[in-house]
Each structure stands twice: as C-alpha cells, then as structure tokens.
Amino acid sequence: MILLDGKALSAKIRGELKNEVAGLITQGIVPHLGVILVGEFAPSIIYVRNKETACAEVGIKTQTLKLKDNTTEKELLGIIEEWNKDKNLHGILVQMPLPKAINEQKILDSIRPFKDIDGLSTMNLGRLVSGDSPYFYPCTPLGIIELITHYGISIEGKHCVIVGRGKLVGKPLANILLQKDRKLNATVTVCHSKTINIGDYTRQADILIVAIGQANFITKEMVKPGAVVVDVGTNRINISEQKTKLVGDVEFETVKDIVSAISPVPGGVGPMTIAMLLKNTINAAKIQCNKI
User: Fold this and answer.
1) 7, 63, 116, 118: the active-site residue
2) Largest CB tally within 10 Å, which of 79, 122, 138, 155?
C-alpha cells in the first residue's frame, strides 16, 4: 500500500517554488498576494495564518485586510476593484465563508481572472467546463491531481468516482479529470447526498475521491480492493471529554488494508492545497509581468 503523503510532497514543491521566487526577485519581480478576511470565524483565521506562513516561507509577499462582520457587499467590491488596479499586487484571495448578507459568487466574479488565484470565478470555472484552460485551476483539485500523479499512478482510462459535488472540489475536479490530456482522460462518476445506494458506485472506482464532509463515511465495504483512495475530508470528532481528533471522510484504519494507495488525514490533500495556492500566486506574478 502506498501512502499518498501530501505533507512530504508539499515540502518538496515549496522548496522548488522558493528557488523560483528567488529567481524572479533577481529580475525585480516579487510575487504579492492580497488576502481579505471578513469577520472572526475561527477556522478562517487559522487558514489565513497558515497561508501567510506558507507564503513567507517561499518568499511571496502578503498583505491581509481584516474586515468586520458588518462590512457591506458594496464596500468589499470597492476594495477588490482597488486591488484589481494595483499592478504590484498579483493575486487576490477572499477567504470563505463570507457573511450571509454578501453574495459570495458576486465577490469572486469581481476579481479579475488573472488575479483569481483560487480559480473560483465564473470566468475561470467556465473556461474549465468548456474545455479551455483557465488562468488558474482551483487549488484543491489541482493538488489532488499532483498528489496522484507524483506517485506514478495513471489516471487515463480509469474510472474515477467522486463523492461530493461542491464548487470547491467535486465539480471542478470532475471537469479536470475529463480533460483530453494524456495525464487525465478519466471516466468520471459524481455521487452526492441524494445518490441512492452510493456504495454501488464507490465499489466500481479505480480511483475514489471523497469530499463529502462526513467523518468516516466511506467504509471498507464501500471500496474495491486495490483501488486508489484520496480523502479530502477534514472532520474534528470527540474521542474523549477532553480530546478531539481530526479524521477524514474515509475510515482510514480499515480501508488502508485493502487499497493500493490512500491519502491520510491530516497530511494528505490539505498541504497540497496550500502548495497549489503558492504555485498559482507565483504564476499570476509571471503572467502579469510577461514572464509566461
């Protein structure tokens, strides 16, 4: 069984990106990421801090604007428009979720496509669905593809079953896997909360990717022996009155005994998502400085 170690691969990629940034700096180009955080949602604060730390590690400059919960949609759109015009700021990231009074997609669509390093604007997602290359692929799906292919696992012609149809993972990942590319070219099935007898589909998967947000949802009985399993879930469960544990959407301890490869939680997809964010930010700087 191969452990799909995203932590180790992410560290390798960060080392390569650090060298790439150093080369850009010698040309007077400092990749610069702007982050907008609205409100005091604790997980978002942690995610932003982790992104800032990762950027600093490879030499990417960051600026984080922390706004109050009562920030209006109009105010947020105004800030993004200013950042869109700032030639020294190459990438814009709006940390989700936003307050309910703000239309998230409207905010994402206000970011210029070549600064949309999350790849979540209608322009970038639309190009992906149409079969064209977007400026940027969404970070988590991109990280999943990097993780699978790094370990020499072929995707072409395989039956990939995705559990979860969310905008961040399931939908964009399905469209990436369907692309006419010798590294992809998969047959794709997408399951979700309304799929009847979901195990009938997951047991057919050569590559099973799970992003449903339910702790230990996928059990040994739902997986084909020899399959590749990628667990995107991050769920915190109580193991005692004082202790909690981070687990995925896959029951790792039982499933690992029958598969050919599996990603752990933590240490699998999570680190890869941040690595791809760094990669997208650097590429944004190169695009805007005519280095691509």
Assistant:
1) 118
2) 138
- In CATH, which superfamily holds the domain spanning 139-270? NAD(P)-binding Rossmann-like Domain (3.40.50.720)
Q: What is the pLDDT of residues 104-145, one digit of tens each?
A: 999 999 999 999 999 999 999 999 999 889 999 999 999 999
Helix, strand, or coil (residue 96): coil
Catalytic, out of 5, 7, 27, 51: 51
Query: Whole-model pTM?
Result: 0.94
Tokens of 264: 């752990």
118 is catalytic: yes
Residue 284 confidence class, pLDDT cut points 50, 70, 90: very high
CATH of domain 28-111: 3.40.50.10860
Residue 279: what pLDDT? 98
Beta strand extents in the chain (DSSP E only):
2-3, 32-38, 61-67, 91-94, 159-163, 187-191, 207-210, 228-231, 235-238, 244-247, 261-262
Structure-token pair, residue 11? 């560290």
- Residue 151, pLDDT > 90, answer yes
Q: Which of 95, 116, 206, 249 is catalytic?
A: 95
Active site residue 95: yes
